[in-house]
Amino acid sequence: MRVGLSIDPPLAAIPALLRAESVDVYQTVLRDPGRFGNYGVPEPADRAALVEGLRGTSVWGVAHGSLLVNLASPEGRIRNSSVSSLLADLKVAAEIGLDAVCFHVGYAKGHPSAEAALTLATRKLGELIGRMPAGPRLLLENSCEGTELGQTIAELARLVRDVGAPADRFGLLIDTCHLHAAGFDLAGDDAGPRLADALAAEGVLDRVVAFHLNDCQLPCGAHRDRHATPGAGTMGMGVVSVAKHPAFAALPGVLEVSVDDARQGLIFLRRHGAAGDA
């Protein structure tokens, strides 16, 4: 797998760090992830420095959308703010050459059923995709806590099918920690084949565009989002099995831990032939 780093702004620092760690994949944020509105959006000079620093390279980049996004919220204000926030991220991502923006779809909380929440999220997601700028792809990331939607492969597949957007506009980003915490056991040497088979059975294997290649601090089914460095969590060699599987080996994967911890994760993955140098 093409494994890389999660790097917070300033954007200008990203090219040198990628070169120093010999990786060609990164994730960043394009606004304050804990707020709606244009807080923490990189200045034009910072954006230009990233573009210039990566000129002539084949780096793959993704921005993580606001953690407040909830396209299923019972409150119209929050749904509309979620759409506006993601559209703003997509616009900046297009300007600086990012490949994708990833996001969590929302929560069932406040609805009489998960079905009602999914129906509302599907409608709002369709509206969002219809207004997207050209360029970056929108990637739905799986979740694992509380009433979050999209915790299972079946639910992710349902959202993909019901929205009906083309694959070049809308895909999936699989977070291995989240999936393990949600109850899909990714420990063991057969984790990659089992994951590929489950995605294929739901008809969405070809929709997987990227990974958050995180290990998990807690047991399978804990329903807590607690990332661990690959090789230091409860998934063990399962992370390697996923990264080396033929269906996933050419895809980008981000280690969502600190840069120092990611260095250790890269050593572990490279030792087992699951990540190469850029």
What does this structure look like?
The protein is α/β, with parallel strands linked by helices. It has helices at residues 14-21, 44-53, 76-96, 114-130, 153-163, 176-181, 191-201, 238-244, 259-271; strands at 2-6, 25-28, 60-64, 100-103, 137-141, 170-175, 208-212, 215-216, 227-228, 252-255. An 8-stranded parallel barrel has the order 1-2-3-4-5-6-7-10. It has a two-stranded antiparallel ribbon with strand order 8-9. Strand 4 (100-103), helix 4 and strand 5 form a beta-alpha-beta unit. Helix 3 (76-96) crosses helix 4 (114-130) and helix 7 packs across helix 8. The longest helix has 21 residues, at 76-96. The termini are close together.
What's the N-to-C terminus distance?
Answer: 11 Å
List low-pLDDT spans: none
Number of helices: 9
What's the SSE pattern? EHEHEHEHEHEHHEEEHEH
- Total strands: the figure is 10
Shape, principal axes of CA atoms:
globular
What about the largest sheet?
A: 8 strands, parallel, barrel
Note the quaternary state here: single chain
What order do the strands of the largest sheet run in, or round the barrel if closed? 1-2-3-4-5-6-7-10
In short:
This protein is an alpha/beta fold and 278 residues long. Helices cover 37% and strands 15% of the residues.
